[in-house]
């Protein structure tokens, strides 16, 4: 994944970015997340930090791209939630269709 930190609002210098959603206006959050997830290669992850359970995002992600991403809670509130989302290794083509 290659991107400029100023355009992505990511924290740290990790090759697997951490996005602190608390710093973004709510209307921008899902679009930013989906943009970053679209840049991940198989096996790469994105860690989200949020002030509430991002379960609605998980449901949206599974509806739009079923089976493409893994979802692992690293912290579950009550004040801070952290989730690691990873793009699963492709099972054939290198697409995001979710049918593999």
Largest sheet: 4 strands, mixed
Q: Which percent bin holds the helix content?
A: 25-40%
Strand content: 15-25%
What is the H/E string? HEHEHEE
Within CATH, the superfamily carries the name: TusA-like domain
Count of domain modules = 1
By secondary-structure content and strand pairing, the structural class works out as alpha+beta
Amino-to-carboxy terminus distance = 22 Å
Q: Tally the helices.
A: 3
Q: Over the alpha carbons, how many angstroms does the gyration radius reach? A: 13 Å
- CATH-derived topology: Translation Initiation Factor IF3
Low-confidence stretches: 1-9
Domain DUF2249: 19-87
Short synopsis of the structure:
The protein is an alpha+beta fold.
Overview of the molecule:
Pfam families: DUF2249 (PF10006). Residues 19-87 form the DUF2249 domain. The chain has a single domain, classed as 2-Layer Sandwich (Translation Initiation Factor IF3), CATH 3.30.110.40. The chain has helices at residues 5-8, 26-39, 55-64; strands at residues 18-20, 45-50, 69-76, 81-87. The chain has a four-stranded mixed sheet with strand order 1-2-4-3, covered by helices on one side. The model is unreliable at 1-9 (pLDDT under 50). The protein is globular and about 35 Å long. The protein is built from three helices and four strands. It is α+β, with helices and mostly antiparallel strands and 100 residues long. The longest helix is centred in the first third of the chain and has 14 residues, at 26-39. Strand 3 (69-76) and strand 4 (81-87) form a beta hairpin. Helix content is 28%, strand content 24%.
